[in-house]
Amino acid sequence: MRIDDFIKECNTLASETSLEYLEVSPSFKFSNTGRRGKKYFAISLKHVIEALEDINSNLATFSNYLHYVEADWRYLFSNYISDEVTIALAGVQTFPMFSLLNKIVTISNNLDNYSEKDIQLSKDYLDTSIMYLNSQMPNDDVYLELLQPQRSSNDRRLQTGRNKIYFGAPGTGKSYAIEQKTETDFTIRTVFHPDTQYSDFIGCLKPVMVDRTIHYEFRPSCLTDAIILAVNNPSKECSLVIEEINRAAAAAAFGEIFQLLDRLPTRQSKYPVNISDPDWLAYLNSKTDNYFASGKLVIPSNLSILATMNSSDQAVMPLDTAFKRRWEFEYLPIEYSNAPKGTLPLPLEDDDGEVEVYDVLWVDFAKAVNKALALDHIPEDKLLGHRFLDDNELNENGEAALKGKIFTYLWDDVLRHGQRSVIFAEYVSNSGGEEVELTTYGQLIQNYDASRNVLKDSLASELIQMTVARDETH
C-alpha cells in the first residue's frame, strides 16, 4: 500500500484527530482533539518507527495498558521511549500520539474493531507495522545522488572507483600489485611521510613572481590533480596512489576529504562537501569546465584511491576505526614462487667448524630466516617478503644488498629488542681463535667482511643443507 493511501485509510477511522503525511522529511502531521483550538504537530517517519520498536522491546509492560488513560501513557512514553524529541512531543500531546500509533497498528495489520482509546498490541502486530513503515523509508542513496553535481548526458563516466589499501610484510609486492592494476598515464602517485599535512595533499596558495611583483596562486597537490584528471577523462579508470599511507596522520591529511570516501553504488562520493576555499574552488572549475560550479566537491566515480601500508614500519601512525572502515583491505602474502632469482654470498660454518663462503639462493635465505623468526613469534608483517630484494640488487651486488639492506633491517628493526640471537650468532671466533661477543652492527659487518659466520649455528646449518641439496640437484 502506498503511504498516501495508507493515510487515507487512517482517516476513515472515527477520530477526533486528523492525520496527514509530509513528504519532505518524511513525517506524519497530526492534530490534537481541538477542544481548545486545533493545533498541528509533526513527527518523522524514522521517529515513529523507533517508538514502535521501543514498544515492541517493552511489550510486556505496554500490554498492561491497552486502554488509554492519559497518566498511564504519559508515564509509558516518558520512561520507555528512547528518543528525546518523541518523549517531549508525547509529554504535551499524549493522546494525539497514542491515536497516531493506534491508527498505524490498526491499518497496517488490517484489524477490525478499531476503538480510538483501545490499542491492539502484539509482537506480530508491531513487527508488521514496523516492517510496513520501513518499506516506506526513502532511499537515501537515490536522494543523495540527486544532490551530486549535475553532469551532461554525454558524460558517460565509468563507475569503477574504490578505496583500497594493500598491506603485508615488506617486499610482498604491494606497489607492484597496484602498478599492474593501473594505467600510468591516468595515475597520480604520492608518498606519505610523518610531515605530510592537509596542504601537501590538497594544495595551497603559494607566492609566485609576476613582472617582479609577488602574487599568490593556488598550487595543486596530488589529490587535486587526481580529481581533475578523473573529471576530464570520464571513460578512463583513473587512480590516486598513496604509498605508505600510515606513515602520516592520514585522517588529518585528508581533512574534510575524509567524508568523501563513502561512496554510492555508482562509486561516486555519497556525501558531497562544500569547498570552503574559494581559491581551490576557482582552480578546480578552471581546469574542469566548471564541473564543480555548485561549490560541492565529490570524488568522481572513475577515480580510485589506492594505498600501500606496512605496519612493521617504526614510523607508522595508527589508522583510526572511522578512517579504516571506509576502505577495502587486501592482504598480500609472502609467495616464494615469485621471488627473484639470485644468490647471496654467505660465509657459513659447518658442523666440523669449517667456514666456507656459499652462494645461497635468495629464496632459500628468506625461507630459512622467516622460519626462524616465526618460531620465535615475530609478527608476520616483520618477515622478509619475497621481493624484499629485487633482481637488480641481487644481480649487481648481492653482498652490498645483504649488508646494507637485509642485515640492517633484521638487526635494527626486527630484532632490536634483545632477540638478535634468533638469527645472528652470539659469539664469533676472531683471528686469534678467541670467542668475541657480537654486540654491535659494526662488529657484525666487520666479521662478515672477514669471512666469519655471523649467523646462528642452526640457521647456518640449514642454509648449507639447502644450498648443497640445490647444487646436487643441478
The name of the CATH topology of the largest domain is Rossmann fold
**How many domain regions?**
3
Helix content: 25-40%
Largest sheet: 5 strands, parallel
CATH architectural name of the largest domain: 3-Layer(aba) Sandwich
β-strand number: 16
Overall CATH class of the largest domain: Alpha Beta
> Number of helical runs?
18
Fraction in beta strands: 15-25%
Q: What structural class results from the helix and strand content?
A: alpha/beta
Spans of 5+ residues with little confidence (pLDDT < 50)?
Answer: 150-154
Cα gyration radius (Å): 34 Å
Backbone shape: elongated
Distance between the termini: 78 Å
CATH superfamily of the largest domain: P-loop containing nucleotide triphosphate hydrolases
Spatial order of strands in the largest sheet: 5-8-11-4-12
Query: Averaged pLDDT, please?
Result: 87
Would you give an account of this structure?
With 474 residues, the chain is an alpha/beta fold. It folds into three domains: 3-138, no CATH class; 153-331, P-loop containing nucleotide triphosphate hydrolases (Rossmann fold), CATH 3.40.50; 337-473, no CATH class. Helices cover 39% and strands 17% of the residues. The chain contains 18 helices and 16 strands. The protein has helices spanning 3-10, 45-57, 59-62, 70-80, 84-92, 94-108, 123-135, 140-147, 174-181, 198-202, 222-231, 250-254, 278-287, 321-324, 362-375, 391-414, 441-449, 457-473; strands at residues 19-22, 27-31, 40-44, 163-167, 187-191, 203-210, 213-220, 238-243, 273-274, 296-297, 303-309, 328-331, 343-349, 355-361, 427-429, 435-437. The strands form six sheets. The protein has a five-stranded parallel beta sheet, sandwiched between helices. Strand 2 and strand 3 (40-44) form a beta hairpin. Helix 6 (94-108) crosses helix 7 (123-135). Mean pLDDT is 87; it is low at 150-154.
